[in-house]
Amino acid sequence: MLLDIQDIHVHYGKIEALKGISLQVDEGEIVTLIGANGAGKSTTLKTISGLRPLSSGKVVFEGRDISKMPGHKRVLVGIGQSPEGRGVFPGMTVEENLYMGAYARKGDASKTLAEVYELFPRLAERKKQFGGTMSGGEQQMVAIGRALMTDPKVLLLDEPSMGLAPMLIQQIFDIIKEINRRGKTVLVVEQNAQQALSLAHRAYVLETGAVVKSAPARELLDDPQVRAAYLGGDLAVEDTAPAAGTAADGSVDLGKGEAGE
Amino acid sequence: MFNDFISQFPQSTVDGLAVGAIFALIALGYTMVYGVLRLINFAHSEIFMVGTVAGLFTISQVFDIKSPLTGFALVGMVLLLLVVAMAASGGAAVLLELVAYRPLRRRGASRLAALISAIGASFFLQEVFALQVIPKLFDRPEGRNQIGVPRIMDKDVLFSVGSMDVRTDHVLVVVAAVVMMVALDQFVTRTKVGRGIRATAQDPETAVLMGVNIDTIVRTTFLLGGAMAGVAALLYIVKFEITAYNIGFILGVKAFTAAVLGGIGNLRGALVGGFALGLIENWGAIFFGSEWKDVIAFTVLVIILMFRPTGLLGESLQQARA
């Protein structure tokens, strides 16, 4: 077991954001957390990275309890995160942003940098551009590339599809698949359940701070409840007449293009 | 009046640049701390005061100066005072952060709480110096009076252009300030710690994900800002030859103004804002008399901010280089 989250509870003031979440990530896997806004997906990732303090429960990484380890040290044990909203440093160039990923590393990071540029040729073309002036898709590439620069054992991705056009989403997910193929373990949080479930080996479904389902991702793609809640549902298929109207405003959709908005 | 302006303009410019350089050095402390913590460190004016007192103490204790120094003695003295003032102000700033701000930050207190803490720390330092430190260090019964600083360098006219006299102290102040600011800018742009400071200023949470230790960065920021106030303190006692427990107050307000004028959170903005404010008040003084200096400076500030709310350099806070 690479990453073992045991019954974690996290509070924002008096509000309990995570109500006892447990999940595991094995080496070499892609695991996804899906769920609606506010289900606690991002909070889970932030807690793993040490940005949010635990009220109770444990985060165990490679058999070692890191629950009390400060956030800036967790990078060095092998947890790299591409944060929600990308967190690209606006006043730094692409290359400076990428090198920030190697901030805590000892030794030369130029080999990793070359790999990142190979994965994202677009970034290699724009080394000197400032992060703040880039498009959403390019910023997402910077954020993922920067997380790779930490040379992580597990790569945490927080909503890589957020705000991107469907074509770009496909591209980003293909790259995630490639990163995994090269041996990186990936834990990805997504609202775009269709894409995430097609990509991942296993999935957890989160609702209001708790895990309500966990299964191989393929199974969840066919699960009627999951389809209804996160994949736009089968309503549209059964109820053809009104569906035509609703599909037009995008509220009911089989999930193929939903995250483009 | 216009003839007055023409005739006094060159000299006012030189004087304005000299005092502006001091504003700019103090402004760096406000702007760096704001950039990293989004906090106005109102006790920064006292950090400057500590530097002037430490400088004066060094002069009064270590050396017995009857007449201004020259040559190597002067250079050595200025360097010694520079080190002492930077260490005193930098150390005081680090201590201030540790005592007045860090505990609040740890407990997630609001920014307003930190602001109150800053004002409290400012009063605390002033009173401690007035009641204890200054009377004891200089053997004076009353700690609230201004103290004269012995003249350590001759203020010779180096060269004159028309009616404009450029003196040695003008040159020392402006050159030292610019050199220190270039050094600081290079530090922030090129070193690893500097990258950590910029990352923290732009996105503190993501900076942690990169392995940046925020506590170390905050401490370093206070140290650097304090050290720059120490440089300003040295230049101030050389140029103006006085200090007092509350000497930082007006200068602090002006330096803070300079930081906002240039674009707070922006290192180069502090330089631009400092020089701009120094020039504006000295030019304005020609028209209205020097007793109106402060009114002129702040009126101009308000007008400039109406048209450029983010300051002269206009960079938004998060995008600032520091």
UniProtKB/TrEMBL annotation, chain A:
One Gene Ontology term from the biological process aspect of the record: L-amino acid transport
A GO MF label: branched-chain amino acid transmembrane transporter activity
Domain ABC transporter: 3-233
Entry-linked CDD domains: ABC_TM1139_LivF_branched
InterPro entries in the record: AAA+_ATPase, ABC_branched_ATPase_LivF/BraG, ABC_transporter-like_ATP-bd, ABC_transporter-like_CS, BCAA_Transport_ATP-bd_LivF, P-loop_NTPase
One Pfam family cited in the UniProt record for this chain: ABC_tran
Keywords: Amino-acid transport, ATP-binding, Nucleotide-binding, Transport
SUPFAM superfamilies: P-loop containing nucleoside triphosphate hydrolases (SSF52540)
Lineage: superkingdom: Bacteria
Family to which this protein belongs: Belongs to the ABC transporter superfamily.
Name this protein carries in UniProt: High-affinity branched-chain amino acid transport ATP-binding protein LivF
The species this protein was found in: Actinomadura macrotermitis
Encoding gene (name): livF_2
TrEMBL record, chain B:
Similarity comment text for this entry: Belongs to the binding-protein-dependent transport system permease family. LivHM subfamily.
Recorded topology in the membrane: Multi-pass membrane protein
Keyword terms, alphabetized: Amino-acid transport, Cell inner membrane, Cell membrane, Membrane, Transmembrane, Transmembrane helix, Transport
Subcellular location field: Cell membrane
One GO cellular component term noted in the UniProt record for this chain: plasma membrane
GO biological process terms held by the UniProt record: D-alanine transmembrane transport; L-alanine transport; L-isoleucine import across plasma membrane
Signal sequence coordinates: none
Primary localization class, coarse: membrane
Keyword Nucleotidyltransferase: no
Protein name, as recorded: High-affinity branched-chain amino acid transport system permease protein LivH
Pfam families: BPD_transp_2 (PF02653)
Regions that span the bilayer: 17-40, 47-63, 69-100, 112-134, 170-188, 217-238, 244-264, 271-289, 295-314
MF-aspect GO terms: L-isoleucine transmembrane transporter activity; L-leucine transmembrane transporter activity; L-phenylalanine transmembrane transporter activity; L-valine transmembrane transporter activity
